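TASK: fixed-backbone design
INPUT:
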C-alpha cells in the first residue's frame, strides 16, 4: 500500500475523533481556532511529500518550536548547555512549577516550558537576533519565510503568568542571564510562529536524515546531535505522556498546544499530524491517534 493511501485511510479513520478534546483556551487567541480540522504530511528522505486533509492550513506551532530553539542552542553552546538544563523526562505537565523549585531552577529538560525558556535565554547570549535566526532556520529547510502571529504572541504575553513565574524562579536561582521580559519575548514569539503540516515535516527533515537536509544533503547538525535531539523528543517531547506515546507510537515526537505533533522515523521520514483539540496533557487527540495508526499500519517504529 502506498504512503498516500495509508494517510488518506488514516484521515478517514480518525474523523470521528477530530474535535474531541479541547482547544488551548488558556491562550485566548487560540481559543477561537476551529477544532474540527485535521491534516497530515510526510516528508521522506528522498524529498517526496505526501499530504492529506488540512495539511496546508497554517497553525500555531507552539511547543514544536522548542526543538528548533534547542537545535540552535546546542549548535552554539555544545555540552555547556547541559550545565543549565537537564536531560530527564519530567513526568509532570509542561507548565509545572513544582519540580523547578525543588531542583533549584534547573529545568528537567529543554522540551518543557521552563527548559525552553532557559534555552531562549541561551539564544539571547548566542545570537544578536535569536528570532530572526529561528525564522531563517525554518526558511532554510522549507524554502519559504515563516511568519509570527502577533495576536497569539500578545495573547500569550497577556496571560503567561505561569511562564513568568518559571522565568522569575530560574532568575532567582541565578540560572537566567537576561531580564525575564526579554527572555519571555523570545519564547512567546517563537511559540507563535505559524506553519503548516507540510512545512513542519520539511522543517524537521534533517532529524530523519542523520542531521542532513533531505535531497540537498546539506549538513544541518552532526549525526550525533540529530540522534540526541531525537532521544530527547522520544523521552520528553510529549510531556507526561511521553511514556505512553513511546509505547503506543514508538517514534521520537514533539507536540504543541496548537494541536501539531511532529514525529521522526530515523533514516526515513519526518511526519506532521495536526488537529487543534487537545487531551489532558496538551497533546492533540486526533493527531496522536493518527500517528499511532501510522506506525501500526506501516510497522515503522524505532523499537
Ligand atoms: N506557548 C505555550 C505555553 O507556554 C506552549 C505550550 C505547549 O505548546 N505545550 O504555554
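OUTPUT:
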Amino acid at each position: 500500500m502506498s504512503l498516500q493511501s495509508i494517510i488518506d485511510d488514516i484521515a478517514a479513520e480518525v474523523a470521528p475523533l477530530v474535535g474531541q478534546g479541547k482547544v488551548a483556551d488558556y491562550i485566548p487567541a487560540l481559543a477561537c481556532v476551529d477544532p474540527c480540522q485535521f491534516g497530515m504530511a510526510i516528508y521522506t528522505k528522498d524529498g517526496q511529500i505526501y499530504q492529506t486533509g488540512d495539511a496546508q492550513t497554517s497553525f500555531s506551532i507552539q511547543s514544536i518550536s522548542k526543538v528548533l530553539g534547542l537545535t540552535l542552542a546546542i549548535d552554539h553552546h555544545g555540552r555547556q548547555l547541559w550545565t543549565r538544563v537537564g536531560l530527564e523526562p519530567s513526568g509532570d505537565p509542561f507548565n509545572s512549577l513544582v519540580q523547578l523549585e525543588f531542583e533549584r531552577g534547573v529545568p528537567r529538560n529543554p522540551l518543557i516550558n521552563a527548559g525552553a525558556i532557559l534555552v531562549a535565554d541561551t539564544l539571547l547570549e548566542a545570537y544578536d537576533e535569536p528570532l530572526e535566526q529561528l525564522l531563517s532556520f525554518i526558511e532554510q529547510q522549507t524554502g519559504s519565510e515563516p511568519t509570527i502571529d502577533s495576536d497569539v504572541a500578545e495573547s500569550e504575553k497577556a496571560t503567561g503568568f505561569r511562564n513568568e513565574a518559571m522565568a522569575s524562579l530560574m532568575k532567582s536561582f541565578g540560572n537566567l542571564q537576561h531580564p525575564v521580559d526579554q527572555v519571555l519575548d523570545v519564547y512567546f514569539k517563537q511559540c507563535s510562529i505559524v506553519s503548516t503540516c507540510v512545512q513542519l515535516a520539511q522543517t524537521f527533515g534533517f532529524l530523519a536524515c542523520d542531521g542532513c537536509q533531505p535531497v540537498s544533503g546539506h549538513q544541518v547538525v552532526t549525526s550525533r546531535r540529530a540522534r540526541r535531539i531525537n532521544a530527547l523528543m522520544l523521552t520528553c517531547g510529549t510531556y507526561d505522556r511521553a511514556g505512553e506515546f513511546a509505547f503506543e507510537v514508538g517514534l521520537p515526537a514533539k507536540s504543541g498546544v496548537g494541536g501539531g505533533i511532529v514525529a521522526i522515523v530515523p533514516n526515513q521520514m519526518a511526519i506532521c499530524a495536526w488537529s487543534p483539540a487537545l487531551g489532558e496533557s496538551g497533546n492533540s487527540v486526533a493527531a496522536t491517534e493518527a500517528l499511532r495508526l501510522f506506525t501500526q499500519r506501516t510497522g515503522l517504529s524505532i523499537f
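COMMENT: The beta strands are 39-44, 49-53, 59-60, 147-148, 193-195, 253-255, 260-265, 269-274.
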